[in-house]
Design brief:
Layout: E1 6-11, E2 26-32, E3 38-44, E4 59-64, H1 70-76, E5 85-90, E6 103-109, H2 114-130, E7 133-140, H3 149-158, E8 162-168, E9 185-186, E10 203-209, H4 211-223, E11 231-235
Parallel strand pairs: 6-7, 6-10, 7-8, 8-9, 10-11
Antiparallel strand pairs: 1-4, 2-3, 2-5
The protein binds flavin-adenine dinucleotide.
Flavin-adenine dinucleotide binds at residues 26, 41-44, 61-64, 66, 68-72, 111, 114, 234, 236-238.
Family: Belongs to the ferredoxin--NADP reductase type 1 family.
EC number: 1.18.1.2
Catalytic activity: 2 reduced [2Fe-2S]-[ferredoxin] + NADP(+) + H(+) = 2 oxidized [2Fe-2S]-[ferredoxin] + NADPH
Length: 240
């Protein structure tokens, strides 16, 4: 468990094939409702990688369990070593080779941060090769829900161009804990956009996770003059 109710799950392809994925993409998990109707749900790949996953390399996802959720029941009932059907990868929520921006504004809530974890090697390359800066604004209710927080903090410590800003909506880190020394905020991510002075010319923004957050940030960034083409979105909604 990454946090209460949020699992980090790791799979390998049982057919021994590689998985050619671009960080930011997702897979779809296929299963049936209790009445036999087929359905599927999408999960972003969390695997930190910059090229195809070879045979036997882990396909990682982070799943936030939703009470009463159909896929949630599937994952909760899955024993270690259990198999699921999946397809993909899909999606275009990816860094683009032609990007010529000065800064990436990466904004997430909850498991919406997983695409950015997957992107770390590509971000590292973009920072080294073209001096791009990166700000990761990550909204979580509490320090316990700051998924992969230590990894992002360590990455920021080793990369001066990468700024990690956790935003806690409910509970701040306990006094004296490691997180109190970090660049933390108290509130929702969308409250802090102004502070980073979004720039229509230099920024490309990515928004991932809770649909209300994505919509709020999208409107705020448009208000700062960012063209729609420079605001890339992935909303975590159920596909029924
Ligand atoms: C492109 C894409 C990528 C996604 N990536 C991820 C990911 O990496 N990790 C992840 O955990 N999810 C991700 N999701 C969401 C995921 O696909 C499912 O929607 C989620 O896991 C709930 O599925 P479920 O079958 O358990 O619940 P459902 O049976 O679909 O829903 C049960 C009930 O809970 C409500 N509900 C559904 N989701 C939520 C929620 N998040 N919060 C509160 N109530 C909810 C529904 O409206 C419904 O009433 C992604 C969605 C998309 C479209």
């Amino acid at each position: 468990m990454l946090a209460p109710g949020i699992a980090h799950l790791s799979f390998v392809r049982s057919d021994g094939q590689p998985l050619d994925f671009i960080p930011g993409q997702f897979v779809q998990v296929h299963f049936q409702y209790a009445d036999g109707r087929p359905t599927k749900r999408s999960y972003s790949l969390a695997t930190v990688h910059d090229h195809a996953l070879g045979p036997g390399e882990a396909v990682e996802i982070a799943v936030s369990y939703v009470p009463g959720g159909a896929a949630t029941a599937l994952f909760e009932g899955l024993p270690e070593g259990g198999e699921i059907d999946a397809s993909g990868p899909f999606g275009r929520f990816c860094l683009m080779p032609a990007d010529a921006n000065r800064r990436y504004l990466l904004i997430a809530t909850g498991t919406g941060v997983t695409p950015y974890r997957a992107m770390l090697p590509l971000l590292e390359r973009a920072m080294a090769e073209r001096g791009v800066e990166v700000v990761l604004l990550f909204g979580a209710r509490s320090p316990a829900e700051l998924l992969y927080g230590e990894e992002f903090r360590a990455f920021a410590a080793n990369h001066p161009g990468f700024r990690f800003v956790p935003c806690f909506s409910r509970e701040l880190p306990a006094p004296g804990s490691a997180q109190t020394h970090a660049d933390v905020r108290h509130g929702y991510v969308q409250q802090f956009l102004d502070e980073f002075a979004p720039d229509a010319e230099g920024d490309i923004a990515y928004l991932c996770g809770n649909p209300n957050m994505v919509d709020a940030c999208f409107e705020a960034l448009k208000g700062h003059g960012l063209p729609v083409a420079r605001i890339r979105r992935e909303k975590y909604v159920s596909s029924k």
